[in-house]
Write a structure and sequence with these properties.
Chain lengths: ~150, ~725
């Protein structure tokens, strides 16, 4: 059994050390907000935070974390779904199919932790998640709106 | 109202999971045909409208929701006629099994062809209006006054003479027993207060918190997980596998041969988690009989398509005048050959489905664009009468046409049959999704146009060579061997109502559009925009080639042939004006216009190409006349997204084959547009009224040609073979 700290709670999981955190979170912890999209860190649908930084959990093995690390998933981003990014997304009706959006929101929230007022160039550089519906125009507006709200 | 399934809360409006199925050891059931709440209160006013005592209105949505916003648009239309409080509107998916049991009261579940709204708006608005009339009649009956003296607004019914009022929730029970009206009168668009407005989507909140349960997220008690590999070459079959090599790996419960009636042949590993199932599958020694297509590659494809460009025999899709005469008397001939490759849909959520099978029942949870075809697939694969099967739809993590095909339902049921009574979730890897798509058909086109000495276009021959979707998927729909869909957006009008949705935008005195069908061993499918995509590229890029050859302005050149297409001309002029077409400001612009899925669309792209060939799309102006705009902000969202989808294909994406196997197996080799490359899109929604046109697809048709034409304006280079990739750097 491995000890972890997820969304502020201390928990134990029973999984092989090589298992990506994505699958630990989805299958051992039963939290399905973190999505499987590609499995090779290309699309970002699986983005979570480790100690406040956005990482792609589909290639991040369980062995790389300990219970000293704060793991945050979309379920733990805010108490009532009211993180500034979530508020901005709701205001602009950003999601279409929505499947990529938990990862998109986590990537944006992670960026804002380090870069509270990103320029368009910084957004271009740091937000590389794929959205096949093509919500990027509202994502960009949403990032600027969330930055104002933070 | 909420059910808890293995720790995940699933609200009843998303899944009708409640009553228990005896015998199978499961607690999964279906919506009862006559729906009653726990206290016996009958809250279904009619098939479309359910009203709770607290005035909550649940609108039943039969079409699938995959991001396109149909769910919200349909709810708006029903609410408009119902005269209910929009703030209290929610929704639920009726099940395909219940539709069957109730003589298809919800009609068509199929969600494609941009038909979600326009295909169901009439009967759903009538459903909303009928429910309103029944509610009023119930109230009037209780008060003993004529229904004609009562008025409903915002879920409140008033009788002004007596000053009485009540709410929908209070009379819903009584209304459900009122005979439905035989005639209903619908509101005119000018009276709309909810429809036609840019209201927020009904399905956003749970998409922001991770709570929305997609098909990939289904969790059921005792569920096992499966990962599958199908024969990597189309037409090949599974020969053997060495189960002993993986059966002792952690969590593995079994290895199952998966053969279906829809041409798939593969093997799945079933384990306690998907990660373990997939790890074992990766290590499973498999032998394939690769079949007859093992030598298929890109050279073979090109040879096949080029053969069709010059073939004597071809199906005629549109013609006028005397093309040979026009060509013989030409002052100048212009000729070009274009190619559009195969493309995968690649929705963000890879294919998946969950099933539980027993000897007398089969239930499936899945993201599908057609609940009824998924139900038929479940029945076929289960070997059970359709009445003993049920499908519960989830919201889709993208569809784009891919999820109209239920191959993955056949597969999951085949696996579940090996584990009677145990729920099985089949999740495809991204690699499996890339290899086993229903790809955008690949075609080439050879175009020839004749110009007279004054630069007038006197004749046009557009020869399409290549793949037919209907021949690959539904040969029964061919007409004497011809695939009429191959001519989308190039049809002459008046052939059939369905094809009238895809008429050619121009009048030509002398015209021939024909199709030499050449079908490679690639499974084709309906890919967002379908055959409009390549046909609009061919027509719109070649119209610009002709205009330049004639020394004429591409806008003026087009408009000269659009005198009988005023709505098409209007969207084209709108984007030209808004984008500053013709301004001497050093910007490089390209135009495109088309008519598809019943809507008139146009775009103007404005691009910069650096000295080392780097493309930047600076701005897009796009106009849409979809007749009736049910939710303008969602139309904008669809138009914006259409550029990401259409330009991902035009700039980066192609499926190619080597030794019969797809070469692009994940997003690193099948790139999709990211935020840094998305242009700013300015959407002009200009509904002219009087009809309902599609929204999800039409704009895809103008995305690529507008940008390709702008690239030409910037560089003088014609990109005729898609995708663009590094052609600007190389040249």
């Amino acid at each position: 059994m491995k000890k972890l700290k997820v969304n502020g709670k201390r928990i134990k999981v029973d999984a092989d050390e090589g298992t990506p955190l994505l699958w630990v979170i989805r299958e051992q912890l039963g939290m399905t907000g973190t999505k499987f999209g590609c499995g090779i860190a290309q699309c970002g649908a699986c983005t979570i935070h480790i100690d406040g930084r956005a990482v792609r959990s589909c290639v991040y093995p369980l062995s790389a974390v300990t219970d000293k690390n704060e793991i945050t998933t979309i379920e733990g981003l805010s108490e009532n779904g009211d993180h500034p990014v979530q508020q901005a997304w709701a205001e602009l009706d950003t999601p279409q199919c929505g499947y990529c959006q938990p990862g998109m929101i986590m990537a944006v929230a992670g960026m804002l932790n380090d870069t509270p007022n990103p320029t368009d160039a910084q957004i271009d550089e740091q937000i590389t998640n794929i959205c096949r519906c093509g919500t990027f125009q509202r994502v960009r507006k949403g990032i600027h709106l969330a930055a104002k709200k933070s | 109202m909420n059910n808890v399934v293995n720790g995940i809360e699933i609200s009843r409006r998303k899944f009708i999971v409640g009553a228990s199925v005896a015998g199978a050891g499961l607690s999964l059931g279906i919506l009862p045909a006559s729906r009653a709440s726990a206290d016996g209160h009958l809250d279904e006013v009619n098939a479309w409208v359910v009203i709770a005592p607290d005035d909550t209105v649940t609108v039943r949505i039969a079409r699938s929701e995959m991001g396109q916003g149909t769910l919200t648009g349909l709810a708006q239309l029903v609410a408009e006629e119902l005269e209910c409080d929009w703030e209290k509107v929610t929704w639920e998916f009726p099940t395909p099994g219940e539709n069957l049991a109730r003589e298809r009261v919800w009609k068509d579940f199929s969600t494609g062809g941009s038909r979600g709204l326009r295909g169901s708006q009439q009967y759903m608005r009538e459903g909303g209006a009928a429910a309103r009339m029944m509610l009023i009649e119930a109230a009037a009956g209780q008060w003993g006054v004529p229904a004609a003296e009562c008025v409903a607004e915002n879920s409140v019914i008033r009788h002004s003479k007596s000053g009485r009022k009540t709410t929908y929730g209070k009379v819903a029970d009584a209304a459900s027993k009122v005979a439905p009206p035989t005639e209903v009168k619908l509101k005119s668009e000018s009276e709309w207060t909810v429809a036609g407005k840019p209201v927020k989507r009904l399905d956003t909140a749970e998409k922001l918190t991770g709570k929305l349960v997609y098909g990939a997220d289904i969790q059921l008690d005792g569920m096992l997980l499966a990962s599958i590999k199908d024969c990597p070459v189309m037409g090949g079959t599974l020969k053997s596998y060495d189960e002993a090599a993986v059966k002792n790996m952690p969590g593995v419960r079994g290895v199952v041969k998966v053969e279906t009636t829809v041409g798939t042949s593969g093997v799945a590993v079933v384990a306690d988690t998907w990660w373990r199932a997939n790890q074992a599958l990766e290590r499973l020694p498999i032998e394939w009989d690769l079949g007859p297509n093992v030598d298929f590659d890109d050279d073979a494809l090109t040879a096949l398509l080029e053969d069709g460009l010059e073939a004597d025999e071809a199906f005629k899709g549109n013609w006028a005048g005397d093309i040979d005469g026009a060509f013989n008397s030409a002052d100048q001939m212009v000729e070009a050959v274009y190619k559009v490759p195969s493309q995968n849909h690649a929705p963000m959520e890879p294919m998946n489905a969950t099933a539980v099978w027993s000897e007398d029942r089969c239930e499936v949870w899945c993201p599908t664009q057609n609940g009824e075809s998924a139900l038929a697939a479940a029945s076929d694969a289960a070997g059970l009468p359709i009445e003993q099967c049920e499908v519960y739809k989830t919201i889709l993590g993208g569809g784009f046409g891919r999820r109209g095909a239920p191959d993955y339902v056949h597969q999951v049921v085949a696996i579940a049959k090996a584990f009677p009574g145990t729920p099985i979730k089949l999740q495809w890897s991204r690699e499996e999704d890339q290899k086993h798509g229903f790809f955008h058909p690949t075609t080439m086109a050879k175009m020839r146009g004749s110009l007279d000495k004054d630069g007038n276009l006197t004749g046009l021959h557009l020869r399409i060579s290549g793949q037919s979707i209907l021949a690959g998927l539904m040969p029964h729909a061919l007409q004497d061997g011809m695939d009429p869909l191959a001519f989308q957006t190039l049809f002459k009008g008046g052939v059939s109502p369905q094809m009238d949705d895809h008429q050619i935008s121009y009048d030509f005195d002398n015209l021939l559009v024909d199709h030499a069908m050449r079908n490679p061993p690639i499974r084709p499918g309906f890919w967002r925009g379908v055959n409009m995509n390549q046909n609009a590229i061919y027509m719109e890029c070649f119209m610009e080639e002709l205009a330049y050859a004639a020394g004429r302005d591409p806008l003026e050149f087009r408009l000269a042939h659009m005198k009988n297409n005023p709505k098409g001309a209007a969207v084209l002029k709108a984007v030209a004006e808004r984008s500053g077409w013709g301004a001497k400001d050093g910007k490089h612009r390209g135009l495109a216009v088309t008519y598809g899925f019943g809507s008139y669309v146009a775009a103007c792209a404005d691009v910069t190409v650096s000295d080392d060939g780097e493309l930047k799309i600076d701005r897009i102006v796009a106009a849409t006349d979809c007749g009736t705009a049910v939710n303008p902000q969602q139309i904008e969202a669809q138009v914006e997204g259409s550029f990401v989808y259409g330009l991902s294909a035009a700039l980066y994406q192609e499926i190619t084959y080597a030794d019969g196997v797809v070469q692009q197996q994940n997003f690193h080799t099948y790139p999709s547009m990211r935020i840094k490359d998305m242009p700013e899109v300015e959407t002009v929604v200009m509904p002219s009224g009087g009809f309902y046109g599609g929204v999800g697809e039409p704009t895809i048709g103008v995305a690529a040609p507008a940008v390709l034409n702008a690239i030409h304006a910037a560089t003088g280079k014609r990109i005729r073979r898609l995708p663009l990739k590094d052609q600007l750097q190389k040249a």
